[in-house]
Amino acid sequence: MQTNKKFFLVTKEWLELKKMSVKYSSYVKYETVILKHIIPFFDDYTIEQINDDIIVSFFKELIDTQKYSNSTLHTIRYVMKSILEYAEKKYCIQTINFSFIKLNRSKGNLRILSENQKILLEKYCFNHYEPISIAILIALYGGLRIGEICALKWEDVDLNNGIITVSKTVERLKNKENMESKTILMILEPKTQTSKRIVPIPVFLKEYIQNYYDYLTVIDSSYYLLTNSEKIPDPRTIQNQFQRLCQDNNFQINFHSLRHTYATHCVMQEVDLKSLSEMLGHSNISTTLQLYVHSSIEFKMNQINKISAPVISQN
């Protein structure tokens, strides 16, 4: 079948099909990738004009700019490959060989809090009953992501058994209604089924949350933890408050580093890796190993180097 159909029209068809089979958050991510990265490059192309060389050129341009994260590049690759596979089946275009597109899978260096930074945050949080305090402590001693913390309601916290149930996440996404607000906070299912989990918390954190609960005189268990109301907490607000608190203490780090700090300390304390993987909501233990096993090796190297060197006589 020969057609002079424009590539951007094929992307629209693909998006409409995807809308029926993926979560809204995934749909928005794919739409953003298409509008921001793919269409500007391929806008003037028909689907027959696209070949291996053009695809390689497109990705080379993206990579050479060094502006995009590994995650973004992998998403662009997935979307582009999927669109062209759709076009191949529907319009019989030539097969594009994506094996030429090799993207780095390295996770890079995960930043964690230094011991001094950790102490400074702990000192503030344990002395203040504020949303930012409880958010930081749940991330630092439960490993929850910021969206998962914002989605927590009081009914998700079982203080008798010392566990938190994670079943939702909060994301700010494009407003479906296209009204005055361009974006809207949405309560969503977690990214994967394994992200739905039960997380045990240490006794000292359970005691802090109990004191926080009593301090607020909570009325309704269906209220969100961070707002103590029906209002959905905004992850951006928590992130901004966290940044200000870090700046007040003369350091700068991302909120997600609290989760990395939690995982790294668990590894260093020799917490069972399968249990840790489940508490982090990873889909398999290999993900946990890939991200955090280096922490265990560095820790063990430091420990083993405490052994004194033997004294060798010169006889």
UniProtKB/TrEMBL annotation:
<dbReference type="InterPro" id="IPR011010">
    <property type="entry name" value="DNA_brk_join_enz"/>
</dbReference>
<dbReference type="InterPro" id="IPR050090">
    <property type="entry name" value="Tyrosine_recombinase_XerCD"/>
</dbReference>
<dbReference type="Pfam" id="PF00589">
    <property type="entry name" value="Phage_integrase"/>
</dbReference>
<keyword id="KW-0233">DNA recombination</keyword>
<dbReference type="GO" id="GO:0006310">
    <property type="term" value="P:DNA recombination"/>
</dbReference>
<keyword id="KW-0229">DNA integration</keyword>
<dbReference type="InterPro" id="IPR004107">
    <property type="entry name" value="Integrase_SAM-like_N"/>
</dbReference>
<dbReference type="Pfam" id="PF14659">
    <property type="entry name" value="Phage_int_SAM_3"/>
</dbReference>
<dbReference type="InterPro" id="IPR013762">
    <property type="entry name" value="Integrase-like_cat_sf"/>
</dbReference>
<dbReference type="GO" id="GO:0003677">
    <property type="term" value="F:DNA binding"/>
</dbReference>
<comment type="similarity">
    <text>Belongs to the 'phage' integrase family.</text>
</comment>
<dbReference type="InterPro" id="IPR002104">
    <property type="entry name" value="Integrase_catalytic"/>
</dbReference>
<dbReference type="InterPro" id="IPR044068">
    <property type="entry name" value="CB"/>
</dbReference>
<protein>
    <submittedName>
        <fullName>Site-specific recombinase XerD</fullName>
    </submittedName>
</protein>
<feature type="domain" description="Core-binding (CB)">
    <location>
        <begin position="5"/>
        <end position="88"/>
    </location>
</feature>
<feature type="domain" description="Tyr recombinase">
    <location>
        <begin position="108"/>
        <end position="305"/>
    </location>
</feature>
<dbReference type="GO" id="GO:0015074">
    <property type="term" value="P:DNA integration"/>
</dbReference>
<dbReference type="InterPro" id="IPR010998">
    <property type="entry name" value="Integrase_recombinase_N"/>
</dbReference>
<keyword id="KW-0238">DNA-binding</keyword>
